[in-house]
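testing teh design pipeline on a random one, pls ignore if ur not involved
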């Protein structure tokens, strides 16, 4: 603007505004490091301080919306690294840095190391879901890798006792912070696998700074988790804390207590399911009993005392006996009347046989005489027929020395010319049969 209008006069406000815009345009968000001094917390929630080094300083402001997310309390003398927007406070023309985020000095190197290791292990497949193990639903023994003095351990044990008191726990003690902690954690995980005492392993530690949790960002711990023979749940820090161990573990929990809850979820759900089933069973039994009681009440209305039922049966028997006697009397009377009517009708219809008995005897004598005469005539005729039959009987002829000649087909031979020399014939005699061979049909025959 000043180049476009070299002789123009602008206000201080415009000048400061143009200067602020130029600074913010020329300097993007940038990380700067220094020591905090002159720290002031305003009633509005904004934080004002100076960031300095050995030879210079700059005013800084961190607005309330950013300051609220700061995980630790700022104090004078702290070495920090700030991500800032270079700007200008227009009302006073003060050069200042608007702080977007803060971290302790040296964390930049840690974050870089974290990112490099994370990328390396991810490329190797240590974070892949397909290599991760499924959690047992009902673990009987749970191993815990943690420090015996850690408050997180007490929280985990309390959660396990509350949710699954039947589950056995084994502690594999190890330092979780400081020099050598990472190697010790890896040894504890390997020891749990070698002893093969538990079905599930919890890796737990309470919250802290990134330096406090750095042991869980070491490669040796990551590889020990990946090589574990049992599923591993990582419960390190608070929900906002993320470590390399969380990515490699078979399951990540937001807190140590959450890790204990995830490990015992099967037992906890089973308890709730058993309670629900018990309630459903009780309700079903109550419904069944109610229905049965209603059935009993219904049957009770139909139930009659045996003495009363006997009395009813006795009365009914007496009634039926009376009815049976009356019916028998009526039937007897009716049959007697029918019999009397039949006797009367028979007596009126009987023929008069006294005057006809003599004629009947005479007719009987005539019948006997006729029968004897008829029998004599029939016997004489029968004798005549018998004599004729006897005369014509072929057997009688055979008995006089004759024979019946049959050819090979069994036909009776009537003509000797039908037989030829060598033919076989059969003879029916008065007693038995004989086969003959024809020598000469014109002369004689010879038995075989």
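output:
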């Amino acid at each position: 603007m000043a180049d476009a209008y070299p002789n123009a006069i602008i206000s201080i406000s415009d000048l400061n505004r143009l200067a602020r815009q130029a600074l913010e345009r020329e300097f993007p968000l940038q990380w700067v490091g220094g020591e905090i001094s002159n720290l002031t917390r305003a009633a509005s929630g904004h934080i004002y301080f100076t960031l300095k080094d050995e030879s210079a300083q700059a005013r800084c402001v961190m607005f309330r919306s950013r300051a609220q997310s700061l995980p630790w309390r700022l104090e004078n003398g702290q070495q920090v690294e700030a991500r800032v927007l270079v700007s200008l406070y227009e009302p006073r023309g003060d050069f200042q840095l608007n702080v977007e985020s803060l971290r302790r000095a040296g964390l930049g190197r840690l974050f870089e190391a974290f990112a490099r290791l994370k990328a390396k292990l991810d490329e190797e497949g240590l974070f892949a879901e397909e290599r991760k193990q499924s959690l047992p639903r009902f673990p009987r023994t749970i191993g815990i890798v943690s420090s015996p003095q850690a408050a997180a351990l007490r929280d985990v044990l309390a959660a396990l006792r509350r949710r699954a008191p039947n589950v056995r726990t084994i502690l594999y003690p190890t330092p979780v912070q400081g020099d050598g902690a990472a190697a010790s954690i890896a040894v504890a995980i390997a020891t749990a696998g070698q002893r093969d005492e538990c079905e599930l392993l919890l890796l737990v530690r309470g919250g802290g700074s990134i330096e406090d949790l750095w042991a869980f960002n070491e490669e040796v711990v990551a590889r020990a988790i990946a090589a574990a023979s049992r599923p591993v749940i990582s419960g390190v820090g608070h929900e906002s804390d993320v470590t390399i161990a969380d990515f490699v573990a078979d399951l990540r929990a937001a807190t140590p207590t959450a890790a204990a809850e995830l490990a015992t979820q099967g037992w906890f759900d089973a308890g709730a399911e058993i309670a629900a089933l018990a309630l459903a069973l009780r309700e079903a039994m109550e419904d069944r009993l109610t229905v049965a009681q209603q059935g009993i009440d219904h049957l009770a209305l139909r139930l009659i005392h045996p003495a009363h039922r006997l009395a009813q049966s006795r009365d009914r028997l007496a009634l039926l006996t009376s009815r049976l006697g009356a019916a028998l009397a009526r039937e007897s009377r009716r049959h007697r009347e029918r019999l009397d009517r039949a006797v009367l009708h028979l007596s009126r219809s009987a023929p008069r046989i006294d005057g006809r008995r003599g004629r009947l005897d005479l007719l009987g004598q005539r019948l006997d005489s006729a029968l004897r005469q008829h029998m004599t005539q029939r016997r004489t005729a029968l004798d005549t027929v018998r004599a004729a039959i006897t005369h014509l009987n072929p057997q009688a002829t055979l008995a006089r020395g004759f024979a019946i000649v049959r050819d090979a087909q069994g036909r009776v031979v009537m003509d000797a010319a039908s037989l030829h020399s060598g033919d076989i014939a059969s003879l029916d005699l008065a007693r038995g049969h004989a086969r003959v061979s024809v020598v000469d049909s014109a002369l004689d025959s010879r038995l075989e």
